């Protein structure tokens, strides 16, 4: 076939080809633009999705942060409440101190000598109470025949031991430590109240009487006599029996009978429950509970128990007690006048009574005396008793030592039945008064110094301030 293509035809053919190419290009461009649009759409979708995801993550994080903030707010408000309580308690305490100082200031204008002394001791006692300290009183008894030095082979008759311990003012005990060939060394001990040999039973009781008011006000109270054998603990707590065993005249009675009278004279007509134990046992369920209605009934009960108390003559003391005596009086009362009124109203309407009663506890303790075995000359079962007595007294000293130390990892209450039984009074929030009894005689100076150091140690103890009992309410 002849291949004669003229110029026009060739151009037309080329135009055709170019047009074809152009169309293909245009189609390709269209495809690409479509693809681009699709990609844009996808991108927009992804961006949107990303935004949504970011928002939900942020919302979650925000929710968590908000919950944390709420928790923090709650914690802060709790901390603030505790802080506010503490502040108001401190304010209350400062207010009471300021009131005391105010009273003291105005009283100071008109007082001298003895007045100032009693004001000082009043303020001091208030501070002791606010700090939760244990109060310590000390009684130095007169020189007595039992202070006679036993005759030795080189001397003919017995001689009275030299008087080396004395009360100075109302709050100081002075000890002259005389040692052969050495200069006199004076030691001074300070306590909340110090009684000298001339102080009567009434004077000693007057200084502890305010604790009985506290008892009726709703505080637990414990008064404990501590001292070596023959130093006057039983005389101070019970009073000394006359030679015939006749009832003691009132002025010879000790703290226990006087407290019994005081309790009943304070609120006549109310019933009192009394728990007594002469052995210091911690098995409280085995105790006998006796309801009493008058002071003579209390004393009758106590005398019956005291008759069972182990005694044994020693070289130091002919009527030495060989056991601790713990008298526990439980006082039940309606906690507030409003409750008393409510109870009266209920009873008038013959409604069943649901009024709470408050119970407070008074513990009066005459400890057995610490003693030096060599000096007391005991043997046999009395020697065993002495060792038990000394061990329980040393457990008491250890408990006070642990409480007085700033860090108290462990207080060994369970080391003796005595400390176990008195645990609440010693370490709890009861008002505790330790009545130290000491002999003034040179012969017993080592034991007396031991007792005075025990008292000083007790004063170091800082417990929580005594609290009124309102948590042991009983429903009648
Ligand atoms: N302040 C005092 N005034 C007069 N006599 C006292 C005084 N204190 C103690 N006595 C007498 O001293 C003696 C010993 O006193 P008490 O029996 O009270 O000692 P105690 O410390 O209880 O001894 P123990 O631990 O051995 O039983 C008694 O005869 C007592 O009457």
From TrEMBL:
<keyword id="KW-0206">Cytoskeleton</keyword>
<feature type="domain" description="Kinesin motor">
    <location>
        <begin position="133"/>
        <end position="461"/>
    </location>
</feature>
<keyword id="KW-0505">Motor protein</keyword>
<dbReference type="Pfam" id="PF00225">
    <property type="entry name" value="Kinesin"/>
</dbReference>
<dbReference type="GO" id="GO:0003777">
    <property type="term" value="F:microtubule motor activity"/>
</dbReference>
<dbReference type="Pfam" id="PF16796">
    <property type="entry name" value="Microtub_bd"/>
</dbReference>
<feature type="compositionally biased region" description="Basic residues">
    <location>
        <begin position="465"/>
        <end position="476"/>
    </location>
</feature>
<dbReference type="InterPro" id="IPR036961">
    <property type="entry name" value="Kinesin_motor_dom_sf"/>
</dbReference>
<keyword id="KW-0963">Cytoplasm</keyword>
<feature type="region of interest" description="Disordered">
    <location>
        <begin position="457"/>
        <end position="476"/>
    </location>
</feature>
<feature type="binding site">
    <location>
        <begin position="227"/>
        <end position="234"/>
    </location>
    <ligand>
        <name>ATP</name>
    </ligand>
</feature>
<dbReference type="GO" id="GO:0007018">
    <property type="term" value="P:microtubule-based movement"/>
</dbReference>
<dbReference type="InterPro" id="IPR027640">
    <property type="entry name" value="Kinesin-like_fam"/>
</dbReference>
<dbReference type="GO" id="GO:0008017">
    <property type="term" value="F:microtubule binding"/>
</dbReference>
<dbReference type="GO" id="GO:0005524">
    <property type="term" value="F:ATP binding"/>
</dbReference>
<keyword id="KW-0067">ATP-binding</keyword>
<dbReference type="GO" id="GO:0015630">
    <property type="term" value="C:microtubule cytoskeleton"/>
</dbReference>
<dbReference type="InterPro" id="IPR031852">
    <property type="entry name" value="Vik1/Cik1_MT-bd"/>
</dbReference>
<keyword id="KW-0547">Nucleotide-binding</keyword>
<dbReference type="InterPro" id="IPR001752">
    <property type="entry name" value="Kinesin_motor_dom"/>
</dbReference>
<dbReference type="InterPro" id="IPR027417">
    <property type="entry name" value="P-loop_NTPase"/>
</dbReference>
<protein>
    <recommendedName>
        <fullName>Kinesin motor domain-containing protein</fullName>
    </recommendedName>
</protein>
<comment type="similarity">
    <text>Belongs to the TRAFAC class myosin-kinesin ATPase superfamily. Kinesin family.</text>
</comment>
